[in-house]
């Protein structure tokens, strides 16, 4: 499965548009991570625990989007985008979406 954040895939022709596909996940922080990241926040620097949490969430959302595209027998997903929104005080939704297409 090819993924592109542009309208096309270089060197390939889009022959059919299959529709919008998406994948999402909602992740919550945990108490242990909040404590260690709170200490890091006081000292400054990257909050690596949260970076890992969000990276895992983006990967899961992308995998779910790809799975939906594969159900449509797509060759690629173009115009791939990610959005994040807060859910309550301790959670975030990651949404990956794009357009499933067939290529020549």
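Sequence proposed for the structure above (104 residues):
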């Amino acid at each position: 499965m090819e993924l592109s954040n542009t309208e096309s895939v270089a060197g390939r022709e889009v022959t059919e548009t299959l529709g919008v596909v998406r994948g999402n996940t909602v992740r919550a922080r945990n108490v242990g991570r909040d404590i260690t990241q709170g200490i890091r926040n006081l000292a400054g620097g990257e909050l690596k625990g949260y970076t890992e949490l969000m990276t895992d969430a983006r990967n899961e959302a992308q995998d779910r989007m790809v799975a939906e595209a594969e159900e449509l027998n797509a060759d690629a997903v173009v115009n791939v985008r990610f959005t994040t929104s807060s859910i309550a005080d301790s959670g975030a939704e990651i949404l990956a979406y794009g357009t499933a297409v067939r290529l020549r």
